């Protein structure tokens, strides 16, 4: 059984990126992709463990070549968005010491 953790921003972000990747490569008339797209939309809108498991199951049913295309697109999107999510590093201001 797959354990799903939805208590961190990275997991939720991953679902969103995967959903966008499927949107980008979705081919008209391919039922598997439409079903995956709909399952990911549901998991994005309502990120319950059941919704995520359903989307994961749909992804597993998609043709291997489409899964590769989706994964490639998702990695591209993730690379473009690197640094937009996660803990922010605060800049520390240094106080001036001495005259001037």
Number of domains: 1
* Helical content band: 55-70%
Query: Cα distance, first to last residue?
Result: 65 Å
Whole-angstrom Rg: 19 Å
Proportion of strand residues: under 5%
Q: Oligomerization state of this entry?
A: single chain
- Low-pLDDT regions: none
Tally of DSSP β-strands: 0
Shape: elongated
Number of helices: 4
The run of helices and strands is HHHH
Folded structure, characterized:
This protein is mostly helical. The protein has one domain. The mean pLDDT is 81.
Q: Topology of this protein?
A:
Layout: H1 9-25, H2 31-45, H3 49-61, H4 64-80
Helix pairs in contact: 1-2, 1-4, 2-3
How would you summarize this macromolecular structure in one to three sentences?
This protein has 100 residues and is mainly α. The chain has one domain. The protein has helices at 9-25, 31-45, 49-61, 64-80.
Question: Which keywords apply here?
Answer:
4 helices; elongated; 62% helix; 100 residues; mainly alpha
């Amino acid at each position: 059984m797959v354990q799903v953790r939805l208590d961190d921003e990275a997991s939720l972000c991953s679902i969103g990126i995967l959903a966008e990747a499927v949107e980008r490569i979705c081919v008209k008339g391919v039922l598997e992709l439409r079903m995956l797209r709909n399952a990911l939309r549901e998991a994005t809108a309502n990120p319950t463990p059941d919704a995520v498991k359903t989307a994961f199951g749909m992804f597993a049913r998609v043709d291997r070549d489409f899964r590769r295309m989706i994964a490639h697109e998702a990695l591209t999107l993730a690379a473009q968005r690197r640094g937009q999510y996660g803990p922010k590093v605060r800049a520390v201001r240094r106080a001036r010491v001495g005259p001037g």
